[in-house]
Write the C-alpha cells for this entry.
Amino acid sequence: MRLTDYTDYGLRVLVYLGTTGDRLVTIDEIAGHSGISRNHLMKIVHRLGQLGYVATVRGKNGGVRLGAPPAKIKVGDVVRDLEEELGTMTADAPKKGPALQPADAVRAVLQDAFAAFARVLDDTSLADLVEPCLGRRSRGTR
C-alpha cells in the first residue's frame, strides 16, 4: 500500500508537533524543519485542524500544536482521515464486473492484507512515532 504525500506530510507534521510539547509552532518553523513547502503545509495543517488533530491559534503570536496528547492519536485514524482512496481497499468496496472465482480470491487476499496493515496502524499511537525522535534530539541529532 502506498500512502499519498499528503498523508505522509500530515504524519510528519504531527510527529514534529509531538516533539515540541505544548509550545505553539509556526508553519514556517515546520517548513524549515521538514523541507515541505509552506503552501502544502497550510493546506495540511488546515485539514488536521478540521479533524481535531491539531489546535490552531491565529494572530501575531499564533501557531499550531497538537489537539490531543500523542498517546491518544492513533496513526490508523489519521491515515483513514487523510487518505481519500482508502475505502477502495475495504471489504465494503463495490465489486466491478462479473463475479469470477480468481478475482474473488485476489480480492479476499488484498482485503486480508489491508486488514493487517490497518491493524498495525491502529495499534500505533503518535507517541510511538514521537518517542524515537525525542531520543535523537536528546543526543543532539535530528
Observations:
- Residues 101-122 form the longest helix (22 residues).
- The helical segments are 5-19, 27-34, 38-51, 75-82, 101-122, 126-138.
- The chain is about 55% helix and 5% strand.
- The chain has a mean pLDDT of 85.
